[in-house]
Amino acid sequence: MDPLSDLALPSRHVLTRLRDRRSGPVHIIDPFKVPPSEAVEKARALDDLGFPFVILASTDYESFETRMPPYVARIKAATSLPVLLHFPPRKGTGFPLTPGADAVILPALLGSQDDYFVWKSFLETLLTMPGRLDREQWPELLLTVALTFGEDRRTGDLLGTVPVGTRTDRLDRHIDVAVSFGFHMVYLYSRHSHVPPDVVRHFRDRLHPDQILFVSGNVRSRDRVTAYLDAGADYVGFAGALEDDDWRTTLEALAAARPGLVPHIRGARP
Fold first, then answer.
1. What is the pLDDT of residue 173?
2. Is this model's pTM higher than 0.85 or not?
């Protein structure tokens, strides 16, 4: 018997929303660093500004099953934003899941030396999901090629990743995998430096038009967002840029990189 035969994965139309509403900046909140009340306040500001969704993500996490359900529920109760999860998998269960999440980013780490993080974690998630969530709670699964640029010992130690170089032939091998297997999204990330805009442009030129190109890492200015959008990124993620007390001003500046967003947050200083 096929162990996957009963898995009728739901569509919450998140992928359609991502494709229809691109492009622009997207905020990434670390729920193991940002208190729930602050996350709700920032999510409301994102909703006011017309952001398409919010991502909850962290490299490290503990007590996921107890912290995340109320965290997600508070954001969902306060905003209309779809909530996407982006956490690394753990052997034995796969990617962490929680009720209320609309979608989960499932990254295939093509630069990892451990094939669990390349593809086995996805299969394990499918096999364990029925025992972790009721069927009506299953999130939409966003199949993603994830690549790390620049030195990143933290991710390397945890997930076995090796930084991807910028040689065209190596980039093309990863692009071929993304296109051939029909991944929904490609996620380019740099923890300590920046993904080169030329790399972003190279991916956009060769990916299928329906494939979403996401870039993040040390994005703190409107100019950086604009540079990536001009290079062909669909979404540009930012996290640490909102860690200061005047985060509303920073958020408005970043939002302005996308034409058509609401110009001012309700409740912010004029």
1. 94
2. yes
